[in-house]
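Notes, Module 5: Reading structure tokens.

Key idea: the token line is not a picture. It is a compressed description, and you learn to read it the same way you learned to read a sequence, by spotting repeated patterns. We will look at two proteins. The first is printed below with its tokens.
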Amino acid sequence: MATTATKAKKATSKTAETQKLRIRVRAYESKVLDASVKQIIDTARRFEAIIQGPIPLPTEIKRYTVNRASFVYKDAREQFEMRINKRLIDIVNPNAKLIEALTNLSLPSGVDIDVKMA
């Protein structure tokens, strides 16, 4: 019979084996975003990494309503919106060379990247 200490060791060894590099990419234009994601995936494939994604996340829509005139004409308004497209990429067990290549990657302006180790 296995004791609770050995069960805990097995559970921690399984979680220690797999590391994930979670990359979250955001941009206003979907074409620029898809090109950036393709560039990231091509870089990861060059180093033979296991890739999960790109997973499209829900588009965040920010809407603003503004009065056209400053004093009169309250009923005359303009509406604007900003759409923020998002993608999620997971890289399983990244090596040091892959992480270095991803940090040296030059992406177009307007693309925001969040990288987390999970």
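Here is the second protein, with the sequence above and the tokens below, as before.
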Amino acid sequence: MIPQLGFAEMLIIAVLALIVVGPKDLPKMMRTTGRFMAKIKMMGQEFKDAFNQIGEDEELVNLRKEIDELKSMGQMSNLSDEAFEEDMRALDDDLRGMPSGIDTKANDDIKASDIKASDIKASDDD
């Protein structure tokens, strides 16, 4: 746990630094301390960035591995735009021709327009 410094503790440290270092060398010491703290922060950020980069590299390796597996299975042999469009159109056609148990909003609209008024009257009489 990092100790927290309040105003009183900081005042005591400042007075001790003034007495020990002296008023002449105090600004120089504070500059040196500030540079040292900046270097520590920079090293910590580099450390975090290195871990983030390792994580990103692992994700890329996993994606490349999956793409290679799909290519080896023959599922991605045609990666042209035309082949992709044809696959998407086939998928769209398959989705539009869903079994009757699965109704989408578009299918409901089509079915509602196909029902005739006489069918509605016949069902109301029952």
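Summary for the second protein:
- Confidence is low (pLDDT under 50) at residues 100-104.
- The CA atoms of residues 72 and 121 lie 60 Å apart.
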